[in-house]
Amino acid sequence: IFDLMMKSLALFASAGIGEILLHEIGVKTVVANELISKRMDLFSSVNPECECITGDITNEKIYKSIIDHSLKAGVTNLIATPPCQGFSLAGKNKSIDQVSSDKRNNLFMYAISAIKDLDLNTALIENVPRFLKSYLPYEGDLILPSEILKSELGDLYDFKIGIYNSANYGVPQSRQRAIVRIWKKGYLSDWPEPDKTDKLITVHDAIGDLPSLQPGEKSKLKWHFARNHEPRMIEYMRHTPTGKSAHENKIYFPKTRNGERVKGFKATYNRMRWDRPAPTITMRNDAISSQSNVHPGRPLKNGTYTDPRVLTPLELFRLMGIPDDPGFPYDTSEILIRQCIGEGVPPKLISSLFKKIIE
Length: 359
Description:
Elements: E1 6-11, E2 27-34, H1 37-46, E3 51-54, H2 60-73, E4 77-80, H3 96-101, H4 107-117, E5 122-127, E6 136-138, E7 141-143, H5 145-153, E8 157-165, E9 176-184, H6 203-207, H7 231-238, H8 313-320, H9 334-342, H10 347-358
Parallel strand pairs: 1-2, 1-4, 2-3, 4-5
Antiparallel strand pairs: 5-9, 6-7, 8-9
């Protein structure tokens, strides 16, 4: 039977959050590589038929294994999120040696090498927006990723670079990602822009139907259980209205253990709003004191608010735009899931991009 699926390689795959919906539109991840074994194990649990290769891509044997398995599987597409530090133009006082010594800054080149070694038809490289303005080591100099792409792939490939907010593509979360779309000359005449949704999906649309939970409380719904928090933090948030920060409270504001007011940004100890997409979910979505992580809450008759806690895993799934039961083993570390979501890309954004060439 002729397989109509586009076969894809995932590099720097983490738990595969971004790829989790691609099979629905005809893209199948058949080979994946990730450095950290617990992330690769989670990816494998959701993609049991995928050839998962754990290890450092800069190791010659690991890289060869990735290429060999990809050739055998008939891979024609790549999705990659190469970690990189680089540095901005404003910080261009670092030496080439300093930047080159950080192994992360060379990982971008492994994604490019894979495109060439596999003679791929298409590739998508995504990262945080500042990646596009980060200078990376290349042939004894420090240059932007776009210039490296032109030099390495410009003869055989066309590419487009853009910044996309996931909230415009059916995700109840405002999250910007830099996306590089690459396609072989002659394979596509163009890679069209993804279709934006007509209406933004709000936090209320996504999680408003879920039962309220106190810190430490569990519901009957899978993945809908609340983390516990320090009593003093719970008290701050009980007195913090929807969309506000506890730093704005006149009495119940964040304090040190000796009672002094804590100085901090209003994005910390902050409740989300119901009436707009969630702010960007970060790696520290387990902490009340981190950025805009607290449930919006509902007002009570006594003047306090419900849900003085961070979001449950189920609430995070919904705000990331992934299924209520994405296939993670139920004994998976909660912190691991939170970290993978915090570093991931919403899959509906990735699907929206690939739909335009699958069509």
